[in-house]
Amino acid sequence: MTDLSYKRYSFTTGFSPLKIITDKFNFPQDSQDNFIIPASDILVKIHYASLNPVDSKLHHTSFFQPFSNHGMGKDFSGEVIAVGGNITKFKIGDLVQGFHPGVLTNDGTFSEYLLVKTNMWFLNTEITKIPSNITLKEAAAWPLVLGTAMLMIDGLSIKDKKVLLLGGATSVGRYVTQLLRIEGAEEIVVSCSPRSQELVSELGATRIINYRENVLNQVLDNVRDKPFDYIFDCWGGTELFSNLDTILAKKGTYHTIVGDIPGSDFGSFVSIVQVGLIGLKSTLLMDK
Ligand SMILES: NC(=O)c1ccc[n+]([C@@H]2O[C@H](COP(=O)([O-])OP(=O)(O)OC[C@H]3O[C@@H](n4cnc5c(N)ncnc54)[C@H](OP(=O)(O)O)[C@@H]3O)[C@@H](O)[C@H]2O)c1
C-alpha cells in the first residue's frame, strides 16, 4: 500500500474558519506504479476549481455534523490518474471536468486530488472529458452554473414561446438567456439593472425590465398583448404571485431555483432548503 498525501480546504462547523488540511489516500500500486483503486472510482488530480455562492452558503449552515473535515468546492477540472476496474469511459491521462456534490462524501474540489465515486446511491458526481477547444481553466468555470441553467429548461418546449426571465444577469441567468435564444424562444423578456442591459441583450434578451423600478408594473405592461408561457426565476421572491393569472398563459409554468426569499445570499439558500429544493434538479414548478 502506498500513501498519497494531499492538501485540501476544509471546515468543521458552520462557524469555524476554512483551513488547509493534509489528508491521504492509501492504495496498492500495480507494476507500472499506477494506483489500484475501488472498481467504480476515478482518481482525479485537480487542476482548477471554481467558487460558487453555494460553496459559501453550505459552509455557513449548521446542517453539517461537527467533528468531520467537510470539503469545499463543487466545480472542477483535472487529469485522471487512476481508474477502477469497472470504469470504461475514462482512462489514465484523460482531461476531465465536472460537478462534485460532495455533500455525502465530506470532500470537495478545493483539493489536490478528488476520488470520484460513480456508484453513489444519491448525488453522483457528474464527470466528462473536456472538449478539445477549451482550456482546463475554462472547463472548471461552468459545470454547476450551466448545469443548473440546462435543468431549468430541461424537457420544456421553448421554440416560439414567450418567456420571462427574472435575474438575467445572475450567473445562471446569463446561461438561461443564451439557451432560450438557441432553443428559439420568440420573446425573451429579462430583468436586470441598467449596467447589465447591453450584455444581457447581446446574450439574447429581446426586451429588458429594469428591476430597480417597479417590476410588477413592467411585467404587466409586457403581457398586454399576450401572457408568458414560462417564467424562469433566477433571483427569487413572490412579487408576481398574486398576478400570475394575468401574467402566465393557461398551462404556463413558473420555475425557480431560489424560492421565496430573493437573492444569492444565505437567506435565499435557507429559502431553497425550506421549500425542499436542494440539489441540481431544484426547480419549483407551478402549473397554472
Ligand atoms: N450559481 C449557481 O450555480 C446556482 C445554482 C443553483 C441555484 N443558484 C441560486 O440562484 C440564485 C442566483 O445565484 P447566481 O450565482 O446565479 O447569482 P449571482 O451571480 O450572485 O447574481 C448576482 C446578480 O444578480 C442581479 N440582481 C441583483 N438584484 C436583482 C433583482 N432584484 N432582480 C434581478 N436580478 C438581480 C445583479 O445583476 P445586475 O444588477 O447586473 O442586473 C447581480 O449581478 C441564488 O439564490 C443561488 O443560490 C445558483
From TrEMBL:
GO MF annotation list: oxidoreductase activity
Annotated keywords: Lipid droplet
Subcellular location: Lipid droplet
Domain Enoyl reductase (ER) residues, every copy: 22-278
Any one annotated GO CC term: mitochondrion
Family matches, as Pfam families: ADH_N (PF08240), ADH_zinc_N (PF00107)
Top-level division of the source organism's lineage: Eukaryota
Membrane-spanning segments: none
Family: Belongs to the YIM1 family.
Name the record gives this protein: Enoyl reductase (ER) domain-containing protein
Organism: Candida maltosa (strain Xu316) (Yeast)
